[in-house]
Amino acid sequence: LQWSSPPEAIKRFKSQEIWFPPPQFYELCRLCNFSSLQELHKFSSDRALEGCERWMPVTLTASDGFVQLLPGDELYPEDPDYTGEKKITMSTDKKVDDLMKEGSVFHRIVIKNKSLAVYVNIVAKYKHINPLMINSDCSDYSSKL
């Protein structure tokens, strides 16, 4: 077990030393907004009574990868399958890059060729903070940590 800051953990993920499922990668990208534990604590204390939102990622299978859609994304279904009883599957013959070029309102995690990328351009609800948009297969992102 090794302690890592969020940017360090993402760096280790990029070098394939460790692996994170998409939700944990998303949260690490969100934590990269804070330069210290004290800053994170202040943020969480300040927004604690604002509320929260239940999320259910919906996976869209593309011809060359996957897109995990989150609430607010233009492709997110109006009535997601929270229980798994509806067995809804979303798929397209389009490539991930084409979906990204065609879209304009993003809240998604793109999974392609063993890499993850977070794309968010919506306003977060309840005074929350969006993750930094980080692509795990390139190094041209800026972290505050």
From TrEMBL:
Keyword Manganese in record: yes
Family to which the UniProt record says this protein belongs: Belongs to the Nudix hydrolase family.
Protein name: NUD19 protein
Keywords: Hydrolase, Magnesium, Manganese, Metal-binding
Highest taxon above the source species: Eukaryota
One Gene Ontology term, aspect cellular component: mitochondrion
Organism from which the protein derives: Geococcyx californianus
Cofactors: Mn(2+); Mg(2+)
GO molecular function, one term: hydrolase activity, acting on acid anhydrides, in phosphorus-containing anhydrides
